[in-house]
TrEMBL record:
GO terms for cellular component: mitochondrial outer membrane. InterPro entries: Glutathione-S-Trfase_C-like, Glutathione-S-Trfase_C_sf, Glutathione_S-Trfase_N, GST_C, Thioredoxin-like_sf. It comes from Aedes aegypti (Yellowfever mosquito). Gene3D superfamilies: 1.20.1050.10, Glutaredoxin. SUPFAM superfamilies: GST C-terminal domain-like, Thioredoxin-like. This is Uncharacterized protein. It holds the Pfam family GST_C. GO terms for biological process: mitochondrial fission; mitochondrial fusion; protein targeting to mitochondrion. Belongs to the GST superfamily. Residues 144-293 form the GST C-terminal domain.
Length: 316
C-alpha cells in the first residue's frame, strides 16, 4: 500500500473559464500550451505536481481515470489528452487562428503528422535515461542527477499504481491495467537493441520531415506554408524534447539534416513557443528538488553552467 497523495481539487473561478491541468515538462502539455497561445485563447494554467503523484490523487483521477496529462476543463466539460484537446480547440474556437491541416493541402504532410503523433515520446524519454551512451549532452532539467531520480521513481511506478488502485476502488481497473502496461514497457526498454530500433524509426520520420522542408525552401517559416499548423507544433515539440534529452547530434546537427536544424533554430526563437518553456528559475528549482542529497554538493555549480550553455535556446 502506498500513501494516498494529499491534494485538493483547485477551485474553478467560473463555468466559462478554460482550465488546463498540465506539467511544464510534458511534451503533450507543451503542444496544447503552444496551440492556446497561437490561437490567443484565454485560459488558466494549473501545474500538476507529477513528482509527488498529484496526477494519481483522487481529485485528478475523477477528471481523468488514467492519471494522464494534459486535461482541459470548461465547467462540467472535461477533455483529456492532447489530441482531443487540440481537436476541441479547433472545433469550438473557429474564429481564432486555425491550426488544422486540410486534407486537400498535402497528403504527405498529413501522413507525416500522423507518424509524429504515433511516436511513443515517453518511451523515447525513458529509453534515453536507461541507455545513456545514446545521448551526448542532456540539457536542463534532464541532467544526470535528475535522470537518476526519474529512473528510480519509474522503477516503483507499477507498485504505486497498484497501491492507488486499492486506495481508490472506483479507479482500480484502469490503474491495474496501467501498472501492467508499465511493466511490459519497462521489460521492452531494458533491451538497448529495442531502443536503438525505435530511434531508427524516429530517424526515418525526421528524414521525411527534412524532405518536406527541403521542398518548402528557406523562404517559408512553417513546414506547410505561410502559417503555423498542428504539424509544426508536433514537430518542433518533438525536436525540443530530443534536444533537451541530448539526442540532437544523433538526428539533425553536424550536417545530418540541415533544413531541420535551420527550421528548429528559427522557430525556437518565436514568442509563442517561448511561452511554453519553463523559466530558468523553475528549471533550477526542479533540478534541486529532484537531485539526490549525495549529488547536491556539486549540483549547483553544474546546473548553473548547464543553464548558461543552453540559455540561447531556453526561455528568454
Amino acid at each position: 500500500m502506498v500513501d494516498e497523495p494529499k491534494f485538493k481539487r483547485p477551485e474553478v473561478v467560473n463555468d466559462d473559464s478554460l482550465v488546463l491541468y498540465c506539467n511544464q515538462y510534458s511534451y503533450y502539455c507543451q503542444k496544447v500550451l503552444w496551440a492556446l497561445h497561437e490561437k490567443d485563447i484565454k485560459f488558466t494554467k494549473y501545474e500538476i505536481d507529477v513528482a509527488n503523484d498529484e496526477h494519481f490523487s483522487e481529485w485528478f483521477l475523477e477528471l481523468n481515470p488514467r492519471g494522464e496529462l494534459p486535461v482541459l476543463q470548461k465547467g462540467l466539460l472535461i477533455v483529456p489528452g492532447s489530441t482531443r484537446i487540440l481537436d476541441y480547440l479547433e472545433e469550438n474556437y473557429p474564429n481564432n487562428k486555425p491550426l488544422k491541416l486540410r486534407w486537400c493541402e498535402n497528403v504527405k504532410l498529413q501522413n507525416l503528422k500522423n507518424s509524429l503523433d504515433k511516436l511513443p515520446i515517453g518511451v523515447i524519454t525513458m529509453g534515453s535515461f536507461l541507455h545513456p551512451r545514446t545521448v551526448v549532452a542532456p540539457k536542463s532539467p534532464f541532467v544526470q542527477p535528475v535522470r537518476y531520480t526519474i529512473l528510480e521513481r519509474d522503477e516503483s511506478v507499477s507498485n504505486r499504481l497498484r497501491g492507488y488502485a486499492k486506495a481508490f476502488p472506483a479507479f482500480s481497473e484502469v490503474l491495474q491495467k496501467k501498472a501492467e502496461f508499465h511493466d511490459r514497457k519497462r521489460q521492452m526498454l531494458a533491451s538497448e537493441q529495442y531502443f536503438l530500433q525505435l530511434l531508427d524509426v524516429l530517424d526515418q520520420v525526421l528524414a521525411d520531415a527534412e524532405a518536406e522542408l527541403t521542398k518548402s525552401g528557406d523562404d517559408k517559416i512553417w513546414i506547410a506554408g505561410a502559417d503555423i499548423s498542428l504539424l509544426d507544433i508536433s514537430l518542433v515539440c518533438l525536436l525540443y524534447r530530443l534536444y533537451v534529452l541530448g539526442l540532437e547530434d544523433r538526428f539533425w546537427t553536424v550536417g545530418k539534416k540541415p533544413q531541420l536544424e535551420k527550421y528548429f533554430n528559427r522557430i525556437m526563437a518565436s514568442e509563442n513557443f517561448q511561452h511554453t518553456l519553463p523559466t530558468k528559475t523553475s528549471l533550477l528549482k526542479t533540478i534541486w528538488l529532484n537531485t539526490p542529497s549525495t549529488y547536491k554538493a556539486g549540483i549547483a555549480a553544474f546546473s548553473f553552467s548547464s543553464m548558461i550553455i543552453g540559455s540561447t535556446l531556453l526561455k528568454r
